[in-house]
Design a protein that fits this description.
- This protein has three helices and nine strands.
- The longest helix is centred in the first third of the chain and has 15 residues.
- The chain has one domain.
- Helix content is 18%, strand content 42%.
- The strands form two sheets. Strands 1, 2, 3, 4, 5 and 6 form a six-stranded mixed beta sheet that branches. A three-stranded antiparallel beta sheet has the order 7-8-9.
- A hairpin with a 5-residue loop joins strand 5 and strand 6.
- The chain is an alpha+beta fold.
- The N and C termini lie far apart (67 Å).
- This is DUF6705 domain-containing protein.
- It comes from Riemerella anatipestifer (Moraxella anatipestifer).
- Pfam families: DUF6705.
Length: 154
């Protein structure tokens, strides 16, 4: 019975250990020429993708701009070890957004939503210095897209 308990204990240790990768490793994997056919077999056991170089920090904050007469406000927060409790956790950005018409009337807003799980504006991965985020405005209509973000320095 002692050997059985020891085996169970050791197996439990193996399964509870984290395998941590970085955002850079994930980015490099996705940019491999054979990624579409082979995926990332060397990263398949990762349990946590960590922002060890603080690459996400430059996007955190409130950003405002205008486009086609509309005023856009974006708020990005960094989440550490974000996940559903099953499988892979990752450091990522969660975005919130507000759109106002030319008269200042709010036509869309998630700025006041406190629950991250109700926000469908989550970070995905880097491609060089560009951070990609998935955005879903209306889940019933499949009104969605990919947002590409880059901060230019002077």
């Amino acid at each position: 019975i002692l050997s059985y308990l020891l085996t169970v204990f050791l197996v439990n240790i193996v399964y509870t250990q984290q395998s941590i990768g970085t955002l850079k490793q994930l980015e490099d994997c996705v940019n491999r020429p054979n990624y579409q056919s082979e995926g990332c077999p060397d990263l398949e056991y990762l349990t946590y993708v960590k922002d060890v170089d603080n690459r996400l920090d430059k996007f955190v904050g409130i950003w405002k701009g205008t486009y086609n007469g509309k005023i856009y406000t974006f708020k990005f927060n960094k989440r550490i070890k974000y996940g559903s409790g099953k499988g892979l956790y990752r450091d990522l950005l969660i975005g919130r957004m507000q759109v106002q018409d030319s008269n200042g009337k709010v036509t869309y807003s998630t700025l006041s939503e406190r629950n991250d799980d109700k926000i469908y504006f989550h970070g995905d991965n880097f491609q060089r210095n560009i951070y990609m985020m998935n955005l879903i405005i209306n889940t019933e209509c499949n009104d969605s897209g990919v947002v590409f973000m880059e901060v230019y320095s002077k």
